Prior knowledge:
InterPro entries: Dimeric_xanthone_biosynth, Hemerythrin-like
Strand order of the largest sheet: 1-2
Organism: Chaetomium fimeti
Mean pLDDT: 84
Protein name: Hemerythrin-like domain-containing protein
Helix content: 40-55%
Amino acid sequence: MSQDMTPGEAVPTNTETPPANDSPAPTARPDSAPEEQPPAEPALPPLTPQEFRIYNRLAEQMDYFHEHFRQMYNTLQTACATNRRPAGMTLKQFIEEGLRLARYLEMHHSIEETHLYPLLGRKMPEFRATTSAPPGGGKEGGGGGGGGRKGKAEECELLRQHKVIHDGMDETADYLRRCRDRECELELGVLKEKMESWGDVLLQHLDQEVRDLGAEKMRKHFTVQEMKAIPM
């Protein structure tokens, strides 16, 4: 204690005010504000059982066809995975099963792209081809089915899947035809390799197309009367 201070005298404290901070407070950046969320779609009233059947008709009919394609594809894929043809199926029958799948898919997708997709695409972007390539566009080297579909520059996801499927499927079918004509022997390992480029896309496509034709999606774009008028 200092000699100049008397007992009981309070010890002085530092009362000096600290210097003010001249730096301005940080302001929030405009881009840090939370993004505005799009307004939620109004809830639609429940469909009656009859309305659901009408709106879900295309999905049910499409899935009927697709189930046949799944079974045919699985026959080929299982044989490739196990390196063994199905019991009771001859080599000729096995090759014809693969060629039949290629023909059926070619016909099925041709009908979709010519009739169904343009009709649905008027209201549904899921089925819309947005931009067409100039005349003459197509698959290099010619040959193979589906030449018309190759020329689209920008397409919806389903049409892009068609292209991947048919590019790979055409090569697979060419191989099976050469095996059928005895130009080469069928090797399941080779067939498996050729199917890998398009098999997963095919299975995804078969499921996705049915979902896009489901009742809850169709009711957003079409009336009951319009649904009844869609041929299938």
